[in-house]
Amino acid sequence: MRHLLATDGLAADQATAVLDTADELKRTLLGREVRKLPTLRGRTVITMFYENSTRTRVSFELAGKWMSADVINVSAGGSSVGKGESLRDTALTLSAAGADCVIIRHPASGAAHRLSGWLAETPTAVVNAGDGTHEHPTQALLDAATLRERLGELAGRRVGIVGDVLHSRVARSNVHLLATLGAEVVLVAPPTLLPPGAESLPVTVAHHLDAELPALDAVMMLRVQTERMHGGFFPSAREYSIAYGLNEARLRLLPEHAVVLHPGPMLRGMEIAPAVADAPQSAIIEQVRNGVHVRMAVLYHLLAGEGEAA
């Protein structure tokens, strides 16, 4: 694997290999007082985050450090970007300085793909940590890891993705990855929050949440991304919550084994009730834990080489 830019086009065996490696890394670190492996010693990983982040940035930094890589964080505000330097020149500068991997989050869809093109003649790998409303592949991988942990194999499972699908790169990455792994995906949202051509995706589209819940093995609630909205997509936060919020009554409609996910940050009380976010069916904290191991696995597959043992 040269880069990780999207789950669209990621083969089932590649995705499964990353998930299996994440499982092995998790078992290897379990119970260790010092969570440190020498796998990426001597490698340099640079994160470039042009958007705010807590979970993704911290977990990538932990992933690199737990594998003994040197991790350097570059922010737009504290770099030459603030002086007007282009993304291309910044990327080439970091590669020339010795970056083995650049992890980028950017508000423009396609930024990670452009970056990989600019660095095509260099040995530097690129990981997409979220680009605009396009994709967020490592989030989908950690979601799949969490579902495998709770449900076993994903083939034949029915997963509902609920809410602001239109603006969600998490939803797009999950649609492609879950379909590749054999799961059935149901998008549940008001028509205004579905992307154009949603029916052409490998999904079922629905608008009534209560009708779908009894047949779901997992439900993924999405954050309402008001910062990307220009215009009225729903009447009010209260009406959105009434129609699409996961409350305690709706939780009881799910099968007993069903799993509740949320990529975070959560808008408690709007997308998801506090009692549901903290319920036993919720795997939201497990998603965060698994995110570190999945991102360790991604760095391993990109930087350690296929012939090396994790």
TrEMBL record:
Carbamoyl phosphate binds at residues 55-56, 105, 136, 139, 264-265. Its EC number is 2.1.3.2. Residues 2-149 form the Aspartate/ornithine carbamoyltransferase carbamoyl-P binding domain. It is an enzyme of class 2 (transferase). Pathway: Pyrimidine metabolism; UMP biosynthesis via de novo pathway; (S)-dihydroorotate from bicarbonate: step 2/3. One of its GO terms (cellular component) is cytosol. It holds the Pfam family OTCace. L-aspartate binds at residues 83, 169, 223. GO terms for molecular function: amino acid binding; aspartate carbamoyltransferase activity. Residues 156-302 form the Aspartate/ornithine carbamoyltransferase Asp/Orn-binding domain. One of its GO terms (biological process) is 'de novo' pyrimidine nucleobase biosynthetic process. NCBIfam families: asp_carb_tr, PRK00856.1. Belongs to the aspartate/ornithine carbamoyltransferase superfamily. ATCase family. Catalyzes the condensation of carbamoyl phosphate and aspartate to form carbamoyl aspartate and inorganic phosphate, the committed step in the de novo pyrimidine nucleotide biosynthesis pathway. This is Aspartate carbamoyltransferase. It comes from Amycolatopsis cihanbeyliensis.
